[in-house]
């Protein structure tokens, strides 16, 4: 199966990307692993004609936004993100009408149609920098209320919340953290900013998935509690065999991140099925919001 996939990737001049939460067999097959935005940015820089995105729908959309001339394939169309589904363009338009005029900051884990209505995008790693860059004292942050609350604690600006969340990260409670810390008293606790504020308060570091991979490599510690989707344990253990990684909770499994199999990848390459293409009238304003964010880190 692996050989057949590599052969088809070559035949189609395709690059295979896998998010850090994908199952081990998918990460092992991929040309690049990483967080959603860094994968899309790196894929745009390749001369591949086809991008096979092993992740969820909003990630394939981001790849399409940044690479309009490439064909983007999502091997299983039902791989979605419950948080991205907690907002729609219509609902955002209605909320904007209720609020005074203010910028809208939208987390990349969102539909392209919502990015298109936003002032600027953010990731879990740069949310504070994005908020601070705005020439406004008040803003609306969508769709993750936890990322918004965690950012609000670190800025003087007033952040209006959208009532969405990642059900997988929101599931981690302070009691879970107390229990896992008791079991591993010497471990450093890394938490993802999609976790609840009370969990982030207990963390030694709040980091995106790729941020956790870098941090674990740079830290002198040898034991870590990983406060994000359990799939991240695999790349951490692969990269740092001398260190030990404990899941903060074994409840933190994202079913949408586990649906794609090697067989699905082969089939989508053979049939060129599962294409995700953001229409130009949405892509152009969505790209503007993404590029405003990217420009901040240049
Ligand atoms: P990052 O990989 O950008 O940290 O995002 C986490 C996540 O929940 C992706 O779905
Ligand atoms: Fe969405 Fe959360 Fe799954 Fe990431 S882990 S895809 S944010 S539901």
UniProtKB/TrEMBL annotation:
Pathway: Cofactor biosynthesis; NAD(+) biosynthesis; quinolinate from iminoaspartate: step 1/1. It comes from Desulfosarcina widdelii. The gene is nadA. It is an enzyme of class 2 (transferase). SUPFAM superfamilies: NadA-like. This is Quinolinate synthase. One of its GO terms (molecular function) is metal ion binding. Keywords: 4Fe-4S, Iron, Iron-sulfur, Metal-binding, Pyridine nucleotide biosynthesis, Transferase. Its EC number is 2.5.1.72. Pfam families: NadA (PF02445).
């Amino acid at each position: 199966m692996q050989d057949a996939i590599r052969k088809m990737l070559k035949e189609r001049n395709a690059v295979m990307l896998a998010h850090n939460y994908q199952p081990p067999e998918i990460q092992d097959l991929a040309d690049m692993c990483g967080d959603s935005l860094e994968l899309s940015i790196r894929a745009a820089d390749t001369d591949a004609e086809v991008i096979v995105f092993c992740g969820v729908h909003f990630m394939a959309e981001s790849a399409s936004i940044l690479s309009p001339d490439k064909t983007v394939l999502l091997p299983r169309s039902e791989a979605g993100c419950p948080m991205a589904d907690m907002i729609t363009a219509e609902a955002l338009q209605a909320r904007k009408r209720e609020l005074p005029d203010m910028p809208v900051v939208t987390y990349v884990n969102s539909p392209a149609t919502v990015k298109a209505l936003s002032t600027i995008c953010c990731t879990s790693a740069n949310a504070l920098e994005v908020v601070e860059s705005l020439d406004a004292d008040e803003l609306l942050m969508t769709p993750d209320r936890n990322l918004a609350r965690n950012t609000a604690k670190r800025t003087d600006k007033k952040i209006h919340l959208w009532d969405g969340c990642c059900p997988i990260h929101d599931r981690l409670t302070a009691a879970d953290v107390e229990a896992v810390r008791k079991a591993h008293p010497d471990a450093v606790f890394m938490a993802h900013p999609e976790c609840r504020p009370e969990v982030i308060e207990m963390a030694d570091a709040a980091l995106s998935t790729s941020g956790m991979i870098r941090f674990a490599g740079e830290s002198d510690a040898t034991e870590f509690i990983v406060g994000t989707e359990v799939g991240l344990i695999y790349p951490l253990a692969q990269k740092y065999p001398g260190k030990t990684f404990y899941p903060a909770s074994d409840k933190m499994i994202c079913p949408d991140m586990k649906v794609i199999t090697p067989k699905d990848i082969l089939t989508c390459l053979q049939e060129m099925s599962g294409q995700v293409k953001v229409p130009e009238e949405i892509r152009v304003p969505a790209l503007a919001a993404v590029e405003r964010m990217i420009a901040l880190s240049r």
